[in-house]
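step 4 of 6: structure.
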Amino acid sequence: MSDFGLGRMSAPAYGACVALLTALGLGVAAWAHPALLHSSLQIMGLEAVPRAAASSFYAVRVAPLFETRCAGCHGDTRAKGQLRLDSFAAVMRGGKDGAVIVRGNAKASELFHRISLPPGDDKAMPPSGKAPLTADEVTVIKLWIAAGASGEGRSVKGAPKPVLEVKIPERDPAAVQKQRAPLAAFVTQLQARFPGVIAYEARDSAGLEVDASLKGTTFGDADLVALTPLKARITRADLSGTSITDASAPALAAMTSLERLRLARTKVTDKTVEAMAGLKALKSVSVVDTKVSDAALAPLRQRGVVVYGGGNGP
Amino acid sequence: MAPEPNNGPVTEHVLVWDIPTRIFHWTIVVLVAVSWFSADQGFMRVHLWSGLTLLALLLFRVLWGLFGSTTARFVDFLHPPRKVVAYLRGHEKVLYAGHNPAGGWMAAVMIGVLLAQALTGLFSNDGLHFTGPLALWVSEDVSTRITSLHGTIFNIILVLIWLHVVAVGFYLLVKNRNLVGAMFTGKKHSRHVPAGLNLSFTRLYIALLLLGLTCGIAAWVFFQGVP
């Protein structure tokens, strides 16, 4: 091979050739990858970005499907086949082989073709290893495409009703233990002192329930004061039928997490109820068969606390 | 590991690029193309092997840049930015046996970016059945982010390749110097190299030892991903 080039060309001429070849290359890339072309035009503002209305059938029924079942491989961090399904514009833009939606024609739409393939097929979507779409989900997408793949229409005739998905959050035992840890020793101690009175409100909670009703009059003011170390964690307290009096008002007022309180058949008066004014978490209180007046209960009722007893129950 | 001086007779053509550098260059070209094609078509096994081979070669090139022949060494072709600017402006009329100041940085950047691509590939996953050999060393979220980076770096590589081709074409068509030929034969015309050139060429067995080392590293990486 010669040490010398193919012949002299001027730098400007060479620059022009490079510019032309670069433009040609970009043109070929745009032709070969229409999704890339549309994306670039939209970014430059030369093409309108298709958008879906928030209340449209697409936004309510189709987009959530794409988000949960497809965006893992066709989203912003990964776009297999250069196809993204994480926005209406991206869905309509298509992937490296062009548009995947043919408006009004589900059968001609590559996207519908792929989700309709039997699970064992190499080209089926989602691919093997991922849970296939349900029949209803496939129908929703099919009907949406057949109805014009619109980003505006609010309903599609014949679409299956949405199934309400209830997600039960997973428990994290380690996290619960961590929450309980600061007072765990006190809880154990007081449970031993007052058997059957103190318990955690749930397996995944550090909140505590106090139920002294079965203790009857053997449970009094001094016993409630003994629960002071747990004051911030007590969410429910059933002190019905115990011998507590207004002397327990400060102890009750300190239970800042208290949501439900039962003081039925106790010797508390308006003084105890007035002390509960600062319990912002309180949702219900029972003062059945006590000397508490309606006037003392009025502020609680006004802020939405459900009150039982006092002559004017709910 | 001391290189040997080129004390051969004066000829019209002068050897400037050693065999390891030339083989490295053209093998990288093939492997980048294979990596691109295999990723595009979903041939992930092929992609893994081409990626690991690239890793071994790039690590070799870094070592060769420290211990190799004169023109292969980083100290020979990495010049201060001021010198690069002066060269590009045509202010200096100095001849270079190996890379010129601009080409030197081009080579270094290309090696760096390709190495980054190979390394990110090790931690990537395709969201389905394929993961890089070191993907399990990181969380799935981190692996996904690195996969995204792997995709971005590929676009940078395409731009660098284009710049490289444009630059080489400039020398070929405007400056009348055939750099492509030189990277095949290893030789430049004596008119295009400094007078009184005294290049040293590291022995081939050193190159083979270094390549063996980097292949061993790549093999170790591969086996991290074998269950």
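step 5 of 6: annotate
 - The radius of gyration of chain A is 34 Å.
 - The mean pLDDT of chain A is 90.
step 6 of 6: archive
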